[in-house]
């Protein structure tokens, strides 16, 4: 089975705990969101979609021209609502799989992303998800068979509920870099000092 995969990077939140527009936080002259986008593009994912909500217009003008932007007014309802809107938007395209990522996973790199893609190519009918101590989570790759369930998500319940419901179809991947996210200025400064 040929895998025609799109990446969807969720970056719609207002990052209240960060005290600023987290997506535009600077790493040596590049914004956090553009760093994340670059890793997906270096993994040779030709279609990268970025979901924006809070501060959408401010962020959108700073994104690369070849990125597809989804602006959702439903971002205030939570991650599930934003993800459902995004999948509904791209479901008209001919994708067999969607790679769901987060806009604040600062350490995730193209090698990590390629590992998910390789596993998806090995198990194209399965969901490929990240292994955490509390169970499966994103980043995750969902096949087309799950698009309808993704489009039905509501509120702040993201893909995690679907991963639990479909645990028999989930292949887990260990990825230490997926565990590094940025929520506060303190975490950001700590990461800058460590990297």
Topology:
Elements: E1 5-11, E2 26-27, E3 30-31, H1 32-42, E4 47-52, H2 56-60, E5 68-71, H3 79-90, E6 97-102, H4 110-122, E7 127-132, E8 135-143, H5 147-151, H6 160-165, E9 170-173, H7 185-194
Parallel strand pairs: 1-4, 1-6, 4-5, 7-9
Antiparallel strand pairs: 2-3, 6-8, 7-8
Structural commentary:
The chain has 195 residues and is of the alpha/beta class. It has one domain: Alpha-Beta Complex (Spore Coat Polysaccharide Biosynthesis Protein SpsA, Chain A), CATH 3.90.550. Helix content is 32%, strand content 24%. It has seven helices and nine strands, in the order βββαβαβαβαββααβα. The chain has helices spanning 32-42, 56-60, 79-90, 110-122, 147-151, 160-165, 185-194; strands at residues 5-11, 26-27, 30-31, 47-52, 68-71, 97-102, 127-132, 135-143, 170-173. The chain has a seven-stranded mixed β-sheet with strand order 5-4-1-6-8-7-9, sandwiched between helices. The protein has a two-stranded antiparallel sheet with strand order 2-3. The N and C termini lie far apart (39 Å). The mean pLDDT is 92.
Produce a short descriptive summary.
The protein has about 200 residues and is of the alpha/beta class.
List keywords for this structure.
single chain; 195 residues; alpha/beta; Spore Coat Polysaccharide Biosynthesis Protein SpsA, Chain A; seven-stranded mixed β-sheet; two-stranded antiparallel sheet; 7 helices; 9 strands; 32% helix
First-to-last CA distance: 39 Å
Q: Helix- and strand-based class?
A: alpha/beta
| Mean pLDDT over all positions | 92
In DSSP terms (H or I, runs of 4 or more residues), the helix count works out at 7
Largest sheet: 7 strands, mixed
Count the E strands. Answer: 9
The tally of domains stands at: 1
SSE order: EEEHEHEHEHEEHHEH
Residue stretches low in confidence (pLDDT < 50, at least 5 long) are: none
Determine Rg (CA atoms, Å): 16 Å
Classify the fold: give the CATH topology.
Answer: Spore Coat Polysaccharide Biosynthesis Protein SpsA, Chain A
Name the strands of the widest sheet in spatial order. 5-4-1-6-8-7-9
The appropriate CATH architecture is Alpha-Beta Complex
